[in-house]
Amino acid sequence: MPDTQIQAETRQTIGTTATTFDQARSEQFMGRMVEFMNGAAVSMMAAIGHKTRLFDTMAALPAASSQQVADAARLDERYVREWLAVMVTAGWWSMTPPPAPTACRRNTCPS
Predict the structure, then answer these.
(1) I need a labelling partner for 63 at 20 to 30 A (CA). Which of 2, 12, 19, 102 fits?
(2) C-beta neighbour count of 36 within 10 angstroms
(3) How far apart, in whole angstroms, are the C-alpha atoms of residue 76 and residue 52?
C-alpha cells in the first residue's frame, strides 16, 4: 500500500465495522510530525538570529557566554540564552559547559 494511504484493515461482520490500528505506522507518523515541528521551530529561531544579527555578533566574538553575546548584541541575556539553547540542541552551535564548582567535582554536591 502506498505511504500516502491510511493503512487499516476493515472487516464487516453482521452490521458492524471493525478497524485494526497499525501502532508501528502511527509511531512512524508521530516521529515524522515531531521532526517537522522541530524543524519549524529551528527555522523560526534561525530567522530570529538573522534578524537580530546574533549570527553576525557570534561570528565576531571568540568563545563567549550567553551574557557576553547578549552584551555585544545589545539584547536581553535571557532571550539570547533561550535562542542559544535551541541552536545547540539543533546542532547548529556547540557549547562547552563551565567547570563544576570544587564541591561538586566528585558527585558530592550539597543538596
Answers:
(1) 102
(2) 10
(3) 11
Alpha carbon distance 92, 65 (integer Å): 16
Q: Phi first, then psi: what are they for 18, rounded to 5°?
A: -120, 140
**Closest by Cα among 46, 43, 40, 32 to 3:** 32
Who contacts 67 (Cβ-Cβ below 8 Å, separation ≥6)? 77
* 9, 19 Cβ separation under 8 angstroms: yes
Beta strand extents in the chain (DSSP E only): 10-13, 16-19
Cα gap 82→34, rounded to integer Å: 20
* Span 80-108, pLDDT tens digits: 999 999 998 898 888 877 665 555 444 44
pTM above 0.70, yes or no: no
Q: How do residues 13-31 score in pLDDT, each as one tens digit?
A: 555 666 788 888 989 999 9
